[in-house]
Write a structure and sequence with these properties.
Layout: H1 2-27, H2 34-37, H3 56-80, H4 85-109
Helix pairs in contact: 3-4
């Protein structure tokens, strides 16, 4: 009985949501103008193009930093645990070895070389 109530509620929500979406799309006015699609910069026209390219090295260093930061987030709670000490040591060793292997691959691949 409870499953039927949830199923009926879900179907009603989907139908009402779809109707609202379709009605709004039907009555929507399609006006496109240059002012509405331009970036807003304190009421002034933008001075330069806002989508400037950046070096891919910054992106790769950021990804590597995030991976090692997540490693710290995973390992620090494991250090507080006193139960299953051998299993925790094995798990921490495996995490560090996998990340160290990834860092070595990045190093030999040249992703960390800034002279390019």
């Amino acid at each position: 009985m409870l499953k039927m109530v949830f199923f009926t509620f879900f179907i009603c929500v989907v139908i009402i949501g779809s109707l609202v979406l379709l009605i709004s799309m039907f009555f929507m006015e399609n006006k496109s103008n240059e002012v509405g699609e331009s970036p807003f910069e304190c009421g002034f026209e933008p001075i330069s193009y806002s989508r400037t390219p950046f070096s891919i090295q910054f992106f790769s260093i950021t990804i590597i930093f995030l991976i090692f930061d997540l490693e710290i987030v995973i390992i620090l709670p494991l250090l507080k645990s006193n139960q299953h000490y051998a299993l925790i040591n094995l798990l921490m060793t495996l995490i560090v070895l996998v990340l160290l292997g990834g860092l070595i691959v990045e190093w030999y691949d040249g992703s960390l070389d800034w002279s390019v």
